Amino acid sequence: MTTAEQTPSPLIGSRWIAVGDGHSLHLAEYGNPDGIPLLYLHGGPGAGCSSDDALLFDGRHWRILLLDQRGAGLSRPRGGLEHNSLTQLLADMEVVRETLGIEHWCLAGGSFGATLGLIYSGRHPERVIAQSYWGLFIPSSEGMAWLYGPAGAARLFPAEYDSFSAGIPVKGWLSLLFEYFSKGFMHANQGVSERAFRRWLDWELALAYPGNHLLGPIDWRSRVLALIELHYARSGYFDAESALVAAFPCISAHTRILQGECDWVCPAELAQHYGPLTARLKEDFELVTVVGGYHSLADGRMHKAVCAAGNWMLSVWHRQL
Question: Is the pTM above the cut of 0.85?
C-alpha cells in the first residue's frame, strides 16, 4: 500500500512508563501486537502524539508505538520542564525499548523528532534497522536564526514576523526574543499570557502551513507545545547539533529523510547544504526533496511521501531480518 490513505490501526492499549525524575511517559500502541515495532517520534519538541499519527503506517504489519516525550501530550507532569533535556529524551527511548523487551525496531518522526531519532540511531546503531524522517530540524545557529531571526523565514513572511517579534527592542538577538516570550507565557495577566502564546503559535503555523491562522481559544496541548519549544530553544537545544554531528558517521540503519520544497520551518536548502548530512548520502542513506511539500503533514504531498517511506521501511526490515 503506497497511497496517502492507510488502513486504520486498532488500538492495542495504552499506559504510562516511569522514566525517573518524576516523569512518566504516555505510550499508546496501535496496529498489530505481533507486528514490526515502530517508534514514532513527534516533533516540537513538545507536540505530543495524536491517534491520527498511526494512520501514517500500515497497521496490518506494524506495531506502532506513539510515545509522548517528557512533558508533552498525556505524559506526566504535563508541560514539565524540569529534568527535560535532550540527554533525558534519548535515555527515555532506551527505557521504553527495554521495558517493552524490543531488540530491534524502526524509527519514524518529523521535525525535532527527526533530530532526536538520528542522534539515537547513531548512539545505538545496533538497535535501529530502518528509519524515515521528514522536515528534519537542524539545531545549528543557522537553523535557529532561520526560524526565529529577522534574516531567515522572516524575509518571506515579513508581516507575520513583525506580529511575532513586536515589542522586542533589538531584532536578531535571539536571547532577548526568548526572554520576552518566557515572561509573556508566565505573565500574571491572563490576557497578556494568551497574546504571547498566540503570537508564538501563529508564527509557527505561518511557516508550517502558510495562509493558516489560529482560530478560537488556545487549547492546553498548544500551550504545552509552546512552553517546551521555548524551553529547548532558550537552551540551544541542549547542544543537539554537536550530538547530531557525532551521530551521523555512526548510523548503520537504512535512512530516508524527506524535506518539503516549501518547508519554511526546516528549509530543504539548509539540509541540502549541511555537510555532516551530505557526507553520509549513499544508496542506503537518502535525502529526498518532496516537490511542493510543506512542513505540515496536512499537505497531501508530504503525507503521501511519508506513507510511502513507511512501506519502504517494511521492505528493508524483511530484507535485513
Answer: yes
